[in-house]
Structures are given as structure tokens and as C-alpha cells.
Write a structure and sequence with these properties.
The chain has 327 residues and is of the alpha+beta class. The protein has helices spanning 46-53, 100-106, 113-126, 142-154, 172-188, 200-206, 224-229, 234-240; strands spanning 6-17, 20-31, 35-40, 61-66, 69-70, 85-88, 160-164, 192-197, 209-214, 217-222, 244-247, 254-257, 263-265, 273-282, 287-292, 297-302, 312-316, 323-324. It has 2 domains: 6-236, 3-Layer(aba) Sandwich (Rossmann fold); 243-324, OB fold (Dihydrolipoamide Acetyltransferase, E2P), CATH 2.40.50.140. The protein is built from 8 helices and 18 strands. The chain has a 6-stranded mixed sheet, with helices on both faces. It has a 5-stranded antiparallel sheet with strand order 13-17-14-15-16, with no helix packed on it. A 4-stranded antiparallel sheet has the order 2-1-4-5, covered by helices on one side. It starts with 5 loop residues before the first strand and ends with a strand. The model has no long low-confidence stretch (mean pLDDT 91). Bound molecules: adenosine-5'-diphosphate (ADP) and magnesium ion (MG). Pfam families: ABC_tran (PF00005), TOBE_2 (PF08402). Keywords: ATP-binding, Nucleotide-binding, Transport. InterPro entries: AAA+_ATPase, ABC_SmlMolc_Importer, ABC_transporter-like_ATP-bd, Mo/tungstate-bd_C_term_dom, P-loop_NTPase, Transp-assoc_OB_typ2. Residues 8-240 form the ABC transporter domain.
């Protein structure tokens, strides 16, 4: 394997607010160029972790290193933050009475005017903000504010970008515009990113690796495929997608399976589960069919609506796709 440079490293970070522990023994390596998604429910400690990585908050124990050098505590410095690491908070800070262009230019105020002009144009293009460049920040939509905050943070080409819930509160259109902007960033800027989200679809789509945070602890780190297909336990499985519980009579173990792994069969003798259709839900690109028998419920997906409520169905699956619930 290539010996990749580690940009940012958190070692054994713990943090409590008063007597309440919020983060316990968190260690993360962020290689150059990697996009690391932190996936966790609300209150799991995501924003606190990002503030510690972004040098806005000191951990109680543990250390943060940047390019191999341990950084001094934030409290020992005159200013919070760190030029090479840019954090975009959940409530992004813009100058409300300045235009988009002025907000972005402000970050570049000490630069040569010609460079500044060119860089601002680049940033407006990457973040698709050209059409609102003269709009005051306070009049922008949520999606435009989010992209202005990103453009502003990128102005000085940070090595590490930290994004707190970048897609939260965005409608579908703005999500797509931001997604395109992020895709552009990944291609054009050689930077690493840690982004925090409670939406598994975003974590799965955008991460090179995902760290799952539960009650302030990282319970799994892996590629999106590893976390989705080989979750360490049913908590991670449910956080990252839908699951069906199975009753494994033979082993007595609690087992589960993803709905997309369940297939319909016309041959009752080949089926592992049979029951009646209880509900059919349309999800745009597929139909979710929920069935039940005396033992329990099972959901599976169809591309067409070829079943009706009350129909009897015979279902099968490969034992390879059955997962055993961990502790
Ligand atoms: P997330 O971003 O995953 O929702 P946070 O890091 O914001 O989680 O919060 C984690 C826990 O710490 C929550 O229970 C929250 O109420 C608590 N918390 C966050 N900030 C503070 C603070 N400044 N003082 C006291 N408790 C806090
Ligand atoms: Mg948060």
C-alpha cells in the first residue's frame, strides 16, 4: 500500500460537558485527500468532535496533530481556529449586509488584487453562485448561504475542510446544486474533508470512509460498502439502511437482512418465508412491499407494482446475506 500522508490526526480524544461525557477515546487519521464522513444520530457528539478538530474547542484529554505536528491547546492561543483547517459551522457565519462576492473577497483581503479577482471568480463558479454574486447575504436562501460559507472557507485553499451537516435543511434542488459543487471541489482542490451528517444516504454517497459515532464513541470505521454490507452490529445496520429481523429457529440467534436481498419466488418449496402483503409504498425508483405472517414482518423491494394487498407471497434469500446481530 502507498504510504499516504496523514493530514490531521486525533488521538484518544475525550470530552465532557460538566460531568456528562460527550466524546470517549476518539482516534481518527485523516489521510491527504480523503473525505471522511462522521455518521451519527443527533446528540451523538458530531459537532463537538468537529469543533475540537477545527480548533474551536479543547478536548479534556488526547491530542490533535496536523501534518505530524501536535498542535498546542486552543486556550493557549490568541485566536481560535487554524488557517489550514477550516470549519463551517451548522449555523454558518456570514456578514449579513455584505454581498456574496464581498463575503468571499473578505477572506482574500490581504492578497494581490489580480489574484483575488481570479480566485473569487473561480469560487463563484465552483459553488454556482454567479447569479447571486451581488445579493446581500441576509437575502440568500439556505442553500445559497451554505454555498457562500463554503466558498468563503475555501478562499485561502485550506488543507482540511470541516463541514457540519452540509446538506441539512436543503430542498432537493439545492441539495443537487451543493452536491455538484462538492463534486467539483473533490476534483479541483486537493484537500481533505471531514463532514458530519445524520443522513446515512449522504454519508454513503460522499465518504471515502465513514466513522459511525454512537454516544460519543466510534463504533465502526470503514468504507461505505463495508459499513453498509458488514455492519458491526444491528445498530450500524439500521443507521445505514433498512433491515428486516428474521427469526432463526435453528440457531436461536437474532439475525437480520437488508430488504433488497430478498427475492420473490413462484415456487413455494423454494421459499424461506411466506406471508401476505400488508402495505405497498411507492418510493419513486422502487416499490416497498411490506408483508406479514404469524412470526413477524418482512419488507422487500420491487421495480414494478405487480402485487396487491392481501396477495400471498413466497420469498427467498441467500444465507450469505443474513447478518447476525452483535452485542
Ligand atoms: P451532535 O452534533 O451529534 O448533535 P453535539 O456535539 O452538538 O452532538 O452534542 C453532543 C451532546 O453534548 C449533546 O447531548 C448536547 O446536548 C451536549 N452539548 C453540546 N454542546 C454543549 C455545551 N456547550 N454545553 C453542554 N452540553 C453541550
Ligand atoms: Mg450537530
Amino acid at each position: 500500500m502507498k504510504n499516504t500522508k496523514i493530514m490531521l490526526q486525533a488521538s484518544s480524544i475525550s470530552k465532557s460537558y460538566g460531568s456528562v461525557p460527550v466524546l470517549s477515546d476518539i482516534s481518527i487519521d485523516l489521510p491527504a485527500g480523503e473525505w471522511l464522513g462522521i455518521l451519527g444520530e443527533s446528540g451523538s457528539g458530531k459537532s463537538t468532535l468537529l469543533k475540537i478538530l477545527g480548533r474551536f474547542l479543547d478536548a479534556d484529554t488526547g491530542s490533535i496533530s496536523f501534518k505530524g505536528n501536535e498542535l498546542p491547546p486552543v486556550s493557549s492561543e490568541l485566536m481560535r481556529g487554524y488557517d489550514a483547517i477550516k470549519l463551517i459551522h451548522q449555523e454558518f457565519e456570514l456578514f449579513p449586509n455584505q454581498t456574496v462576492e464581498e463575503n468571499i473577497s473578505y477572506s482574500l483581503r490581504f492578497y494581490d488584487p489580480a489574484y483575488k479577482k481570479e480566485r473569487v471568480e473561480d469560487l463563484l463558479e465552483i459553488t454556482a453562485l454567479g447569479s447571486v454574486r451581488n445579493q446581500k447575504a441576509k437575502l440568500l436562501s439556505g442553500g445559497e448561504k451554505q454555498r457562500t460559507a463554503i466558498a468563503k472557507s475555501l478562499a485561502e485553499q485550506p488543507d482540511v475542510l470541516l463541514l457540519d451537516e452540509p446538506f441539512a435543511h436543503l430542498d432537493n434542488h439545492n441539495r443537487r446544486v451543493l452536491a455538484d459543487a462538492i463534486e467539483g471541489l473533490r476534483k479541483q482542490q486537493k484537500m481533505s474533508c471531514v463532514f458530519v451528517t445524520h443522513e446515512s444516504a449522504d454519508a454513503l454517497a460522499w465518504s471515502d470512509r465513514i466513522a459511525v459515532l454512537k454516544d460519543g464513541e466510534i463504533i465502526q470505521i470503514g468504507t461505505p460498502q463495508e459499513v453498509y454490507n458488514k455492519p458491526v452490529n444491528s445498530y450500524v445496520a439500521e443507521l445505514t439502511g433498512d433491515i428486516n429481523w428474521l427469526n432463526d429457529q435453528e440457531s436461536g440467534k437474532k439475525t437480520f437482512i437488508r430488504p433488497e436481498k430478498i427475492k420473490r419466488t413462484k415456487h413455494p418449496e423454494k421459499s424461506k418465508w411466506s406471508g401476505k402483503v400488508q402495505a405497498i409504498r411507492f418510493h419513486g425508483n422502487h416499490w416497498e412491499v411490506r408483508c406479514a405472517n404469524k412470526q413477524g414482518d418482512l419488507a422487500f423491494y420491487r421495480n414494478r407494482r405487480d402485487l396487491e394487498i392481501g396477495d400471498e407471497v413466497f420469498l427467498t434469500y441467500s444465507s450469505r446475506d443474513v447478518m447476525v446481530a452483535g452485542e
